[in-house]
Amino acid sequence: MTLTQFWVVLGTVLCLMELFLPTAFVESTLGISAFLVALLSLLVPQFNLQVLVWMVLSLIFIFLLRRFMPKRTPSTLVESTEARTITAIEPGQTGRVIYEGNSWQARCEDDRTAIAIDQPVVVLRRKGNTLFVLPESEITP
């Protein structure tokens, strides 16, 4: 097998792997880089230099892919922003809320505000497995 054939086979395998194991087009960029190196291998016979060119092209393509692909937003808090406390949330402390049918650790966004048990709250953001909430009465006029 010649080096050109090796790079064509590698590029084909990597592009086919993207079909079966989606990696947000990373494998495809590696495959395209391998196809370009296959063309270059006709001019540059040193395998070490070909591998270096393949790695550099792959990094460039991955960087460009990440730069121009739209960023996906996590859908964890998109569907609902309403929750209800199941324990009291003392100022600066954590408590528990029911959010989308599950019990979550929650903390009041305002460290000076306490929230009583069984109060409706609005989920503002999530950090790890802790929801940051505010009482619904503070948000609605």
Short overview:
This protein is an alpha+beta fold and 141 residues long. The chain has helices spanning 3-20, 26-40, 47-68, 136-139, and strands at residues 82-85, 94-99, 102-108, 120-127, 130-135. Strands 1-2-3-5-4 form a five-stranded mixed beta barrel.
Describe this structure in words.
It is a single chain. This protein folds into two domains: 3-68, no CATH class; 82-136, Nucleic acid-binding proteins (OB fold (Dihydrolipoamide Acetyltransferase, E2P)). Helix content is 42%, strand content 22%. The protein has helices at 3-20, 26-40, 47-68, 136-139; strands at residues 82-85, 94-99, 102-108, 120-127, 130-135. A five-stranded mixed β-barrel has the order 1-2-3-5-4. The longest helix has 22 residues, at 47-68. The protein is rod-shaped, with a radius of gyration of 26 Å. The N and C termini lie far apart (74 Å). The model has no long low-confidence stretch (mean pLDDT 88).
The biggest sheet amounts to: 5 strands, mixed, barrel
Strand pairing plus helix content: what structural class?
alpha+beta
Proportion of residues in helical segments: 40-55%
Output the radius of gyration: 26 Å
- Counted up, domains total 2
Low-confidence segments, given as residue ranges, are none
Our measurement of the CA-to-CA distance between the termini, rounded to an integer number of angstroms, reads 74 Å
The overall strand count is 5
Q: How are the strands of the biggest sheet laid out side by side?
A: 1-2-3-5-4
H/E element sequence: HHHEEEEEH
Task: Please indicate the percent range of residues in DSSP E strands (runs of 2 or more).
Answer: 15-25%
Mean pLDDT, nearest integer?
88
Give the overall silhouette: rod-shaped
Number of helices: 4
